[in-house]
Amino acid sequence: MATITQVLHHVAFRTYICALLSLLCASPSAAETLRIYAASSMTNAVTSLVEEFKQQYEVDVTTVFGATSSLARQIEHGAPADIYIAANTKWVDHLIRQQVVNSDAVTNVASNKLVVASKQQGLKLDITQLQDWLTILSDGQRLAIAEPNAVPAGIYARQSLQSLDVWNSVNSKLAPTNNVRVALTLIEREEVPIGIVYQTDVHQSPELVVVAELPDESHQPIVYPMIRLTDHSTSVLFADFVTGVHGQAILSQYGFLPAKEPR
Q1: Are 225 and 93 in contact (CB under 8 A)?
Q2: What percent of the chain clears pLDDT 70, i.e. is strictly above it?
Q3: What's the gap between Cα 141 and its chain centre?
Q4: Residues contacting residue 47 through CB under 8 Å, at least 6 positions apart
Q5: What is the C-alpha separation between 2 and 24, in angstroms, rounded?
């Protein structure tokens, strides 16, 4: 039969183990990896968010950037992601309908504006005048735009051009790309005279100028929903970090605006 001393030692040992497990569960392990999937237009901002986050927590972070649609399909087919930041609500709603995620795990973290950008200083464009578009896009010149049927930046751009009643005329003069960062590269390399990108893209490319801003009312609101795909401690910590004061300040540094419509 166990003595009282042995019993007390056993209880103390169990109490120690429980306390240790609680501490381990409350803070991320150094070996724990956080996997973040984010829209390509968020590349620079998310990279900075990750760097700041890693300074606070000993966490390995893996980032995957790409078109919102492509990332959503990967997640739908089982890609191992913990956090997904999209460039529109369409693909997030798709994942909710497919019961891949719960709507309670979605939070809008930022918004953006759509602009016409160029590397040509002094270029004039009245976006309401079709002839201005056609003059710039004459002689085989193209308008860089993210894929208008799938990529958020391209979808917004198409909506805006349709609202401005110039879409049918410029549709045949497009240079569609897999994501908005590629469209930005075409403008930077002067392979096209103009392109439609996000305000934040021009913010990170000082050699470009904003030729015109596309009206907010000409397209659906540009919002960035963040989904927490797992309940891992690192996922919760990162989601709280992004929506917190410091995370929002980092997004603002890269030209992002506050989220317009809380989900």
Answers
A1: no
A2: 87
A3: 30
A4: 63
A5: 31
Q: Angle, to 10 degrees, between the axis of helix 152-163 and the axis of helix 90-97?
A: 120
**How many H helices and E strands in the chain?**
11, 10
Task: State the DSSP code for 208.
Answer: -
What residues contact 171, with CB distance under 8 A and at least 6 apart? none
**Which residue from 167, 160, 152 is spatially nearest to 216, judged by alpha carbons?**
160
Mean local confidence (pLDDT), 133-142: 97
Per the rule left: phi > 0, alpha: psi between -120 and 50, beta: everything else, 173 is alpha
* CB 182, CB 193: distance < 8 Å: no
User: Which residues lie closer than 8 Å to 136 by C-beta, 6 or more apart?
Assistant: 123, 125, 193, 194
- Residue 87, classified by CB atoms within 10 Å of its CB into exposed (0-12), middle (13-18) or buried (19+), is buried
Q: Give me 186's structure tokens.
A: 């075409």
The gap from C-alpha 207 to its chain's centroid, in whole angstroms, comes to 23
Run of H or E residues at 83:
strand 83-85
pLDDT of residue 259: 87
Strand locations in 98-249, DSSP E? Answer: 106-111, 114-118, 143-146, 174-177, 194-198, 209-213, 223-228
- Give me the DSSP letters along 162-191: HHTT-HHHHGGGEEEESSHHHHHHHHHTTS
Q: How confident is the model at residue 35 (pLDDT cuts 50, 70, 90)?
A: very high
pTM above 0.70, yes or no: yes
Whose structure tokens read 């392990």?
Answer: 29
Mean pLDDT of the 170-188 span: 95
- Total residues belonging to the chain: 263
